[in-house]
């Protein structure tokens, strides 16, 4: 199986090649008319071997986002290969069935490579006969882009402020095309929604006023379906949505919207005098509302399923088991001298002395705080605040506490019903002023992984650090 993943910017088109060398029970299919990579469907416990050949003019490496695999297979930037070189990924897929994805991860140029189309979905299948089958089980990869007059992708206006904020486009693409109308039959669907955008956050809602029925998160199915008026989805995150079109009239139409919200960004001295509105190169700031895509119902009736009241039980990671429950490791995400940092530091590929070290087969609690502790540069730096989607490589974790006491009421009031903190996660949204505690267990593999902000421009600026399992 030979897949070209094209990367197009201006008139140059580059590619990398993924050869699926071994994957007995897997399918790898391109999305029709898409500039994105393919959708892998792999059975749980499958061993897969993929050869990556880099034909890009710059170094690259593939990261399998959300998968629990050894460090050498995980796409740490230290394993990036140059143009013409190749790297063979081989691992057993032992994650829970669910919706994962893959994308490049070279140091400082991840944002550009993902933007140009080098990403795809990686679905782990289980025995899920009670859920919508194949034809009714669809990816929805949401991304924003800017096109120039010749219909070519434009990445960043290279100014400091737009980098600081992260890329925001003014066109919304679904599954790597601008064809935003999807035909569905009178059936029950399972949508695997991935926010594959560089820095845009979506507040997903249906136009017909029905609740968003969420059945899964980053790490697979929830223990039971959750109904929400809307769902916040930050870059890197996935949710699985259940939607029944069977009662709708033929030719009826439903939109998936992103509703307006206030993401809490403040970039100014003196209380946000420079809001993100002013800085957005595209004019579509984070938090503006728009339509993502529409679904037109055909007269054909297809598969109907009834929503299960429960899936499988999810065992929780007991906080009491954590070796550091009394004093969690703390990670402060903030801005220091026009630079996004974690605990005052930026990414260093091999600075072994001060990266986090954890022990194999232990449970820990980590606390992530959006904002400075006030000791560093004091007030000045703390006035620049943005949301950060926090992502850890190598494992799935559980959210045990989300403290919103420091979040501005103006912002919180617009997003509060949109968080799903149940189930397994590998990425979560950390709003300005917010504190989130997670429980995580280091199992099976030793070695070096990264954790970082999944606003890809922030990541490329160095808002990323290593942790090592020893
Ligand atoms: Cu999808 Cu290191 O990230
Ligand atoms: Cu990842
Ligand atoms: Cu960030």
TrEMBL record:
<dbReference type="GO" id="GO:0005507">
    <property type="term" value="F:copper ion binding"/>
</dbReference>
<dbReference type="Pfam" id="PF07732">
    <property type="entry name" value="Cu-oxidase_3"/>
</dbReference>
<dbReference type="InterPro" id="IPR011707">
    <property type="entry name" value="Cu-oxidase-like_N"/>
</dbReference>
<feature type="domain" description="Plastocyanin-like">
    <location>
        <begin position="25"/>
        <end position="127"/>
    </location>
</feature>
<dbReference type="Pfam" id="PF07731">
    <property type="entry name" value="Cu-oxidase_2"/>
</dbReference>
<feature type="domain" description="Plastocyanin-like">
    <location>
        <begin position="328"/>
        <end position="469"/>
    </location>
</feature>
<dbReference type="InterPro" id="IPR008972">
    <property type="entry name" value="Cupredoxin"/>
</dbReference>
<dbReference type="InterPro" id="IPR045087">
    <property type="entry name" value="Cu-oxidase_fam"/>
</dbReference>
<protein>
    <submittedName>
        <fullName>Bilirubin oxidase</fullName>
    </submittedName>
</protein>
<dbReference type="InterPro" id="IPR033138">
    <property type="entry name" value="Cu_oxidase_CS"/>
</dbReference>
<dbReference type="InterPro" id="IPR002355">
    <property type="entry name" value="Cu_oxidase_Cu_BS"/>
</dbReference>
<dbReference type="GO" id="GO:0016491">
    <property type="term" value="F:oxidoreductase activity"/>
</dbReference>
<dbReference type="InterPro" id="IPR011706">
    <property type="entry name" value="Cu-oxidase_C"/>
</dbReference>
<keyword id="KW-0560">Oxidoreductase</keyword>
<keyword id="KW-0479">Metal-binding</keyword>
């Amino acid at each position: 199986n030979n897949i070209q993943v094209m990367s197009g910017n201006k008139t140059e088109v580059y590619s990398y090649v993924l050869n699926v060398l071994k994957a007995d029970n897997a399918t790898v299919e391109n999305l029709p008319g898409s500039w994105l990579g393919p959708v892998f469907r792999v059975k749980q416990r499958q061993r897969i071997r993929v050869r990556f050949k880099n034909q890009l003019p710059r170094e690259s490496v593939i990261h399998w986002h959300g998968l629990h695999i050894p460090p050498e297979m995980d796409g740490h930037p230290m394993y990036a290969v140059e143009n013409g070189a190749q790297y063979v990924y081989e691992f057993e897929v032992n994650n829970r069935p669910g919706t994962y994805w893959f994308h490049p991860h070279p140091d400082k140029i991840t944002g550009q490579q993902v933007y140009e189309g080098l990403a795809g979905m990686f679905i782990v299948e289980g025995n899920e006969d009670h859920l919508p089958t194949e034809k009714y089980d669809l990816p929805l990869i949401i991304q924003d882009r800017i096109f120039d007059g010749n219909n070519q992708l434009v990445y960043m206006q290279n100014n400091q402020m737009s980098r600081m904020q992260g890329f925001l486009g003014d066109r919304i693409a679904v599954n790597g095309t601008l064809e935003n109308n999807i035909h569905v039959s009178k059936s029950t669907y399972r949508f695997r929604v991935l926010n594959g955008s560089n820095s845009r956050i979506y507040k997903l809602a249906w136009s017909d006023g029905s609740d968003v029925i969420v059945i899964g998160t980053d790490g697979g199915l929830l223990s039971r379906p959750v109904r929400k008026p809307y769902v916040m989805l930050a870059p890197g995150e996935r949710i699985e949505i259940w939607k029944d079109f069977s009662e709708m009239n033929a030719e009826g139409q439903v939109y998936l919207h992103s509703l307006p919200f206030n993401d809490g960004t403040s970039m100014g001295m003196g209380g946000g005098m420079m809001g993100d509105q002013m800085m957005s190169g595209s004019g579509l700031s984070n938090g503006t509302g728009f339509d993502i895509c529409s679904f037109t119902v055909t007269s054909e009736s297809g598969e109907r399923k009834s929503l299960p009241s429960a899936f499988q039980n999810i065992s929780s990671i007991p906080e009491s088991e954590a070796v550091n429950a009394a004093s969690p490791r703390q990670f402060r995400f903030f801005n220091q001298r026009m630079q996004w940092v974690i605990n005052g530091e930026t990414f260093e590929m091999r600075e072994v002395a001060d990266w986090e070290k954890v022990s194999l087969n232990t449970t820990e609690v980590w606390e992530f705080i959006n904002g400075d502790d006030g000791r560093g540069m004091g007030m000045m730096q703390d006035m620049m605040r943005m949301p950060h989607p926090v992502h850890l490589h190598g494992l799935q974790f559980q959210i045990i506490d989300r403290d919103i006491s420091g979040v501005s009421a103006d912002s919180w009031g617009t997003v509060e019903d949109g968080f799903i903190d149940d189930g397994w996660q590998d990425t979560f949204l950390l709003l300005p002023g917010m504190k989130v505690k997670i429980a995580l267990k280091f199992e099976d593999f030793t070695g070096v992984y990264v954790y970082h902000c999944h606003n890809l421009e922030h990541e490329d600026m160095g808002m990323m650090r290593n942790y090592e399992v020893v």
